[in-house]
Each structure stands twice: as structure tokens, then as C-alpha cells.
Amino acid sequence: MERNWAGNLTYRATRLETPTSIDELRQLVAETPRIRALGSRHSFSDVADTPAVLVSLAELPGTVTVDGDRVTVPAATSYGDLAATLHTHGRALPNLASLPHISVAGGVATGTHGSGDRNGCLATSVAALDVVGADGRLTRISRDDPEFAGSVVALGALGVVVSVVLDTVPAFDLRQTVYPRVPWRAVLAGFDELMAAGHSVSLFTDWAGENLRQIWVKSTGEPPADLFGVAPATTALHMIPGESTDAVTAQLGVPGPWLDRLPHFRLDHKPSSGDELQSEYLLPRDRAPEALRRLRALAGRIAPVLHVTEIRSVAADDLWLSGAHGRETIAVHFTWRNLPAQVAALLPAVEAALLTLDARPHWGKVFATGDLAGRYPRWSEFRALRRDRDPDGRFTNPFLTRLGLV
Ligand SMILES: Cc1cc2nc3c(=O)[nH]c(=O)nc-3n(C[C@H](O)[C@H](O)[C@H](O)COP(=O)(O)OP(=O)(O)OC[C@H]3O[C@@H](n4cnc5c(N)ncnc54)[C@H](O)[C@@H]3O)c2cc1C
Questions:
Q1: How far is the C-alpha of 362 from the C-alpha of 365, rounded, in Å?
Q2: Domain coordinates of the chain in residue numbers?
Q3: Which pLDDT belongs to residue 239?
Q4: Is the per-residue pLDDT at 46 higher than 90?
Q5: pLDDT per position as a tens digit, 265-283
Q6: Is the beta carbon of 47 within 6 A of some atom in ligand 1?
Q7: Buried-most residue among 129, 332, 346, 356 (CB within 10 A)?
């Protein structure tokens, strides 16, 4: 059977269906007792997996349609392709993830996010979803629906999303500037000021030593002349040592369109390392200093297993299963080396440091804990919504069952 992007997961599905019309998809869903939607396969966890039938919407017809300040997007469209079309209409999304390769429906379903104190996760741009439900009917769920906030970051549990309507903003220019080796001491003392230094700010570290590896600032205006006295880099840098800088989006403060600066990685290149696993934990912002202190104390164990950590901010939202639900958030991400046994052995120590600070693991990345219910105030409402929408468990899978969402 097929594998995910990283190759750490072989899907257990017995069949992969690729319907070529919405009617075919509706019939397939209605006739199949257990079925899951598959996006562009960039999740590291088994969130998409099923021992039954997977359905990809990559062959469904449909085009990106811009209408005023809204855009309707076929579910399998990549953010990169969507961004290119939006830009030709003078429109934009306020933020993107580190890579433009992921599908819009897949990114929305797991609460995928970029960085920025005022940027919510990508799902916060969703105004409506067209979903094939458990009975095979196609229904639109809009922002004025009382169950909308439970239906957006939905892990594929409520049906197969066929198209997504997103709010857009006017297209804008950005500059991307990288500051190498900024001291931890200054970063911790001026953390809030630093995270507000641009439209989107990412801190990269391997936790070892007295300096961070790099800080990437994406600014709509002039970038800071320096960060705590550290001047910008004068050559392009990849956040993972040894990786080609051909793969990263334009840096050096050169202004250019939002879609060529918001992601770290270019659509026509390999994102990240490729030989990796990923984990991420989303924390209440006021617990972040303690989280960073605890992780620095674990540096000796983390650094040998790590390509790089990225620290980002995410604005609070009201989406029930979003990692940023109800709280301003700091997300601490780990791009691990492709060492599954070592990563599995280390995760309990990382989680022991973070879970007591009310961290929520990213749904699409690897995590060890099964103790999630108390971390989401609307958990039981989501369970009830899922039961109501899918009483026979057509869209359930081992991931949802293991975590108590079924
Ligand atoms: C190199 C790399 C970089 C990454 N960077 C970031 C980042 O910057 N920020 C971040 O938050 N995450 C990041 N991720 C994680 C990634 O964004 C998420 O795992 C995302 O969900 C992947 O989307 P996908 O289309 O590949 O979905 P898949 O992995 O295929 O599926 C994920 C979930 O979406 C559901 N789904 C997919 N399509 C549909 C549909 N049509 N209807 C209903 N449900 C559907 C699936 O059932 C499943 O539950 C990164 C991953 C990689 C590999």
C-alpha cells in the first residue's frame, strides 16, 4: 500500500479510491462502511490512516474560484497552487505553513499553522466547507452554523470535504530576513518584543549552546536593523545545516510577493530535510518561558536526535480541536532525524516537560501521549457532534479511537 510523505507510515488501507466526480464520491461514501479522506500525505501521525478504504480527491474536477474577498478551493488543491491563483487576482491569505505543498483540506483538518502573533492557524480563514457526510449527501457548513467551530479542524472525522471557502486579504509584499546566532539570554528577556518584530517570526534552535541557530523575520515594512545587536545574515541560510539554500524562499530583506516569502520552502523544491520525523506541542503563551527553560535543560538528550526546532506564535481561535483554541499560543516544533526508535524513546521526556504546562500535540505529527481530553474545553461537544454526524462510525479510524474521540 501507499506511504506518507516522510515514509514513516505505510497506510494500512486495503484500497485507495480516486473518484472523478462528486456523484461518484457520494456513492462511494454511502456504500463504504469505513472510509477516510487522504490529503497530500504530509502528516507524520496515523491521523489519516485506516485499515479500510482511503479516498483521495486529487482526481475530482474543479477549479479555484475567486469571488471578491472569498475564494472557493477544491479540497485537494495545494496551498502553493491556491496562492498562485489568488495572487493573479490581487488577493492573498494572511499566512501559510512552512511548506506550500500540503493540501488545503488536509491542512485545515489538523489545525496546521504558520507563525505570527496576529495570525491564526490556517483553518481560521475558513468561511464554509462543502462536505459529503456519512449518508452520502453533500452539505454546506458555514460560519453562521452553530456547529461550524466544531466542523473545521475535524481530523476527517465528520466527512469528506469537497471544497473549502476561504476569506482572503489584499495581496501584499514581504521581506524575509534571517538573523544568525542571537543569544538565548536576550531572546528570553525580550521574548514578546521579539515575536512581535514582524508579520511572522520563527526561532530556530538545536537547544545546545548559548545562542539560537537562526531567527527568521517576515516583515511587511522595513525589517529590524538588528535583533538585540545581532545584524542580519548577508547570505541565504537553510535552517538545517548541510541542506541546499536553493530550497528556501528569498531572504536578505529583498521585498517580494507574500506567496514567495510566507512559506520557508519553495514549492518546486524539497521542503525541510526529507529524511525526518516531526513533533510539535502548542502551549499557552504564558507558559512558554518555562517550557523553553525545561527543554534547554534536556538539550543534551534532544540535540543528538534533532535536525532543528522551530518556535512560532499562533493567535487564539475558537475552533474546538485547534491547538490554539481559546489561548494565545507558542508552538514548539521538532524536526527529528529519521531515527524512529530514538525519537520514540525521547518523546516521553519531552512530553513530561511540556504536558504539565498544558501543551497540546499537533494532530499531524508524532506524539506519545494519549491523554488529550482535558486539554480541549470542547472535547465532549466534538465527540457528541461526531456521533451525531456519523452514528455508524463510517469515518472513524484507530487514531480517533485510541485518543477517545469515538
Ligand atoms: C515538511 C513538512 C513541513 C510541515 N510544516 C508544517 C507547518 O509549518 N505547520 C504545521 O502546522 N504543520 C506542518 N506540517 C504538518 C502538515 O501541515 C499537516 O500534517 C497537514 O495536515 C498535512 O496535510 P495533508 O494534505 O498532507 O493531509 P494528510 O496528512 O493526507 O491528512 C491529514 C488529515 O486531514 C484529513 N483530510 C485530508 N483531506 C481531507 C478531506 N478532503 N476531507 C476531510 N478530511 C481530510 C485526513 O483524513 C487526515 O485526518 C508539515 C509537514 C511536513 C511534511
A1: 6
A2: 15-56, 65-171, 173-361
A3: 96
A4: yes
A5: 999 898 988 899 999 999 9
A6: yes
A7: 129
Q: Cβ(58) to ligand 1 under 6 A? A: no
CB-based contact 228:220 (threshold 8 Å): no
310 grid coordinates: 522551530
The grid coordinates of residue 134 equal: 456519512
**Topology annotation, domain 15-56:** 3.30.43
How far is the centre of ligand 1, averaged over its atoms, from the C-alpha of 224 (Å)?
Answer: 33
Tens digit of each residue's pLDDT (9 = 90 or more) over 85-114 = 999 999 999 999 999 999 999 999 999 999
Q: Is the CB of 39 under 6 A from ligand 1?
A: yes
Residue located via cell numbers 545574515: 233
Question: In angstroms, what is the span from residue 363 Cα to ligand 1's centroid?
Answer: 9
Residue with cell 466526480: 21
What is the atom index within ligand 1 of the atom nearest the CA of 36?
47
How far is the centre of ligand 1, averaged over its atoms, from the C-alpha of 392 (Å)? Answer: 25
Q: Is the CB of 113 under 6 A from ligand 1?
A: yes
Task: State in words which class domain 173-361 has.
Answer: alpha beta
What CATH class is the domain 65-171? alpha beta
Task: Assess contact for 338 and 135: CB atoms under 8 A.
Answer: no
